[in-house]
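Question (not urgent): is this output format expected?
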Amino acid sequence: MPELPEVEVVRRGLQTHVAGHTVSAVRVHHPRAARRHVAGPADLAARLLDARISGTGRRGKYLWLLLDGDSDTADQALVVHLGMSGQMLLGTVAREQHIRIAALLDDGTALSFVDQRTFGGWQLADMVNVDGTPVPLPVAHLARDPLDPLFDRDAVVKVLRGKHSEIKRQLLNQTVVSGIGNIYADEALWRAKVHGARTAANLTRTQLGNLLDAAAEVMREALAQGGTSFDSLYVNVNGESGYFDRSLDAYGREGEPCRRCGAVMHREKFMNRSSFYCPKCQPRPRG
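Got this back:
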């Protein structure tokens, strides 16, 4: 699933190419892609027709297009859920059978929502003000992410100090800190030399602060390289892959030497996923 850096790469591409343009045609090819829009596919298409895209927004792993107005005055947004394999592509699409929603902009640009696994989708939503920041209603429950200018690191550390569960589980809790998924959680934990099974409340404020700093650092580095692409399902708006997978220190490196100490990297099951860590740099908690 795309995480913060990958979604931000897509948002930036959309901001460059679609902001300021008007939707001149819309067609929902697969009703599942509009399932989150309660009024249904026909209503979604009708309400998007002739809508002006004034800008883009993102919080954590969610992105949206602002409609008719700027970030402070827009009444509605088109919230885009990328799911496991969703793509927002401009121009010609190689695999047309995976186009779920197709739109045409006033300058002739084709904007397609492509989703092989059909877990993602579009929905129109009202904008609401949360702690002084306008966000779409479906996103209002999410915490700020580490790359948000208003992210309060110390406040998140305080929240984590009260959590009596595994620290990796809390890093993935989007109501505590958004944007971090399995890949960047493992990378941040490796950098901070913390095992993901350690209890959040048992970590010191310094350890938790360092962990959040590591998450922000690794996601900035990934963003600079276009995100992490393990297969063709994550690409930017031009269909190009990111290259941060070549720089990963933990995720996917089972059996390889730790880049820091040389010990063999391990993998273990975690929440129907996998966790990758160094047994020497990140020893498991006793008991």
